[in-house]
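Batch manifest, entry 17 of 40.
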Amino acid sequence: MLAQTFVNGLLLGGVYGVATIGFSMVWGVMSIINLAHGAYIMMGAYLAYLMAARLGIDPFLSMPLVMAALFCVGFAVQSLLLNPVMRTSVLLTLAMTFGLDLFLVDVFVALFTSDIRSVNTSYSSEALAIGPVLVSYVRLAAALLSLALAGLLYLVLTRTRLGQAILATALDREAARLMGIVPERIYGYTAGIGAALAGAAGSLASTLFPISPGLGNSFIGAVFVITVLGGIGSVTGAVAAGFVYALIQSFAASYLGVNYQEIVAFGLFLVILVVRPQGLFGKRFFGEV
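Output type: structure tokens
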């Protein structure tokens, strides 16, 4: 049971990690706590569901299309709604994203009702047996894809001009502007990448969890905690903290009961905040890869 609990937590940690990276990056670069991030995850799950149900496309294969669609949504929201508000007050961005989250959830309730939906593939119930431990193919694929996406984003941020521009804007917006960088455009790209990663997390979540308009609400609390644990703006920290959070949840659910998994996780989060406010893996609160 100990080994199975460890494997279950480890596999879920990858999904938590990729769900958190975009949220953490937007917070680190723009100082925006995007409360609509959960709605983006929910939208990704529904898009994957629609392509599976209507077109017969496997969620893992449709993920690039979902990410492209969510990138456009994130870029448009940032450029049209958030950039003008950021000039007045950062706190207004919090209210704006909260309102956007409510709006998107209500739209999907109107379109799909609150009925639970799911994506079932031919391999959904298949698992690899390693001794007494069963490793679900779906969870294994989701974890591996999550790590691949995190690695790809790390390379983009450290090896490309766009990545360098994002980091420069995060560290000093005015200095970046003097270097010819347009911060508003970089903010749009950053929000688009964050939304695309939320869409990827939604695609992966569609293979693991029931889909409903409230799906994002179950993620946003975990995403917030993992961001702080990993260090705000840190890609590697988000992935590592995602595994830590999922393992804590898995062991708490197995040994104390499902009702205690979030109590234990959030309680430990509060303790870590007191002992190490910058998070387990963070050194600074912004612009760190």
